[in-house]
């Protein structure tokens, strides 16, 4: 039976309360975690969490340049499935430095042909401009998408995938954007646990989509599994699971 996939959560935050060993086995969900700090690495490698992104969030913009350089240069040593969550955020200072940090990581993603996962709050057109320039070869996922339909259109043209979470689902003004995202079939679901929901959140999100939009649970699971398999280039074995 196909499971749901949670494309973005922070399992490190559960390290002291939940047994993370084989966490995918005891639940109805496959988790894709995120590593944003050096102290989070061991939890993911040691606990054999199968899938995780690693990166420096725009909140790290003010940290020492040497630290950032070293962290980013070592991302590939830990063999994450991709680089994330990286991006731009108007709530943090110094846009130039944020762009520098983002591009430092895009360079690694492009060189090693890795998928990327983004955090974007404000600065949308700056972000779009950067992506037109970089033309990354692998899958790009916008986590927690909650922008306008104009921004959706631009990112859609650039081939982005969109991860649907509570921020978008609970925003009544964004119904049309959400419908457009579902139409593309290039979407994922996310809890962003513990920041926007709990570890079972994607089940609730999938049920809300099924109840309020024209999509079945079966279809949701197939789309998530196929998209995930496309991201890891068939290594997930979706065609055998079907
Ligand atoms: Zn997050």
Can you give keywords for this protein?
242 residues; alpha/beta; TIM Barrel; 10 helices; 42% helix; binds zinc ion
In words, what does this structure look like?
The chain starts with a strand and ends with a helix. It has 10 helices and 8 strands. Helix 2 runs parallel beside helix 3. An 8-stranded parallel β-sheet has the order 1-2-3-4-5-6-7-8. It has one domain (4-232): Metal-dependent hydrolases (TIM Barrel), CATH 3.20.20. It is globular, with a radius of gyration of 17 Å. With 242 residues, the chain is of the alpha/beta class. The longest helix is centred in the middle third of the chain and has 17 residues, at 95-111. The mean pLDDT is 94. Strand 4 (82-89), helix 3 and strand 5 (116-121) form a beta-alpha-beta unit. The chain binds zinc ion. Residues 8, 10, 34, 85, 192, 195 line the site of zinc ion.
């Amino acid at each position: 039976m196909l499971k749901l996939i949670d494309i973005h959560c922070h399992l490190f935050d559960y390290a002291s309360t939940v047994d993370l060993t084989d966490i995918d086995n005891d639940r109805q969900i496959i988790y894709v975690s995120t590593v944003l700090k050096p102290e989070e690495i061991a939890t993911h490698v040691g606990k054999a969490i199968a899938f995780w992104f690693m990166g420096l969030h725009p909140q790290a913009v003010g940290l020492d340049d040497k630290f950032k350089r070293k962290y980013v240069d070592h991302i590939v040593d830990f063999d994450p499935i991709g680089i994330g969550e990286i991006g731009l955020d108007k709530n943090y200072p110094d846009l130039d430095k944020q762009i520098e940090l983002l591009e430092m990581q895009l360079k690694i993603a492009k060189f090693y042909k890795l998928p990327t996962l983004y955090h974007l709050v404000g600065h949308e057109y700056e972000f779009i401009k950067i992506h037109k320039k970089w033309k990354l070869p692998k899958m790009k996922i916008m986590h927690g998408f909650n922008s306008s339909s104009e921004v959706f259109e631009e990112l859609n043209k650039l081939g982005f995938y969109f991860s649907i979470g509570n921020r978008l689902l609970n925003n009544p003004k964004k119904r049309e954007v959400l419908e457009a995202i579902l139409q593309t079939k290039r979407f994922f679901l996310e809890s962003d646990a513990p920041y926007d929901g709990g570890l079972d959140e994607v089940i609730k999100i999938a049920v809300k989509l099924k109840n309020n939009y024209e999509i079945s649970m079966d279809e949701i699971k197939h789309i998530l599994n196929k998209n995930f398999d496309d991201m890891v280039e068939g290594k997930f074995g979706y065609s055998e699971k079907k």
